[in-house]
Amino acid sequence: MSTPEPGGVSRRAMLKGAGAAAFASVLGRGVQAQDGEEAPAQPKEEGLQSRGPEAVEVVFTLNGEETKLVVEPRVTLLDALRDRVGVTGTKRVCDRGACGACTVWLDGATVNACLLLAVDVAGAEVTTIEGLAGEAKLAPIQRAFVQCDAMQCGFCTSGMLMSCAALLRDVPRPTLEQTKHAVVGNLCRCGTYPHVFHAVQEAAQ
Questions:
Q1: Domains plus CATH for the chain?
Q2: Are the CB atoms for 120 and 110 separated by under 8 Å?
Q3: Predicted structure pTM score
Q4: Tens of pLDDT, residues 106-164
Q5: Contact, 105 vs 170, CB < 8 A?
Q6: DSSP letter at 120?
Q7: How many CA atoms does the CB half-sphere of 174 hold within 13 Å?
Q8: Separation CA 5–CA 17 (nearest Å)
Q9: Residue 148 neighbours by CB under 8 Å, 6+ apart
Q10: What is the C-alpha separation between 159 and 196, in angstroms, rounded?
Q11: What is the C-alpha separation between 191 and 181, in angstroms, rounded?
Q12: Which element (helix H / strand E) includes 147?
């Protein structure tokens, strides 16, 4: 039972009255807008481009070569690389940006390919694990991974290598703490982190 407030009005009745007044105010504004009154201006987001649902052409640089794809706007970069281009070194593991197995470089920055749409890399430069090695030899960090036994099941290896290679590119002589920070987004369920850290130090030599 509602407790009457001073003056004979219960708390429940007061809340009901306030709610009804607010609803009537909103409803009134909607009716006025329909009757010809100018509706409140909605904020506009500038720089956005609508695409789809039909497939569109995407042109970007992949491992130093111009690549053209025709994909639906919903296709992720990971799916485009693996299923449309046939570049399968980039792995799909969690498919939600939590493990880092699909790490690639986008204009030099490490990103998760499963969180990017293929249409968003138009005009950009994408580097995958296939782009690290030369025509006849592995990159120093790849050789160090082999020498230091820094891989077991292999699911995380390509993404881990991309993060480590980016670190060595930007910091030729990284500290242990810098190395740990560089691979903080790359999960290794086999627990080979000490071997990875050792491999980075070896590659830095």
A1: 56-131 (3.10.20.30), 140-204 (1.10.150.120)
A2: no
A3: 0.75
A4: 999 999 999 999 999 999 999 999 999 877 789 999 999 999 999 999 999 999 999 99
A5: no
A6: G
A7: 27
A8: 14
A9: 195, 196, 198, 199, 202
A10: 12
A11: 16
A12: helix 140-147
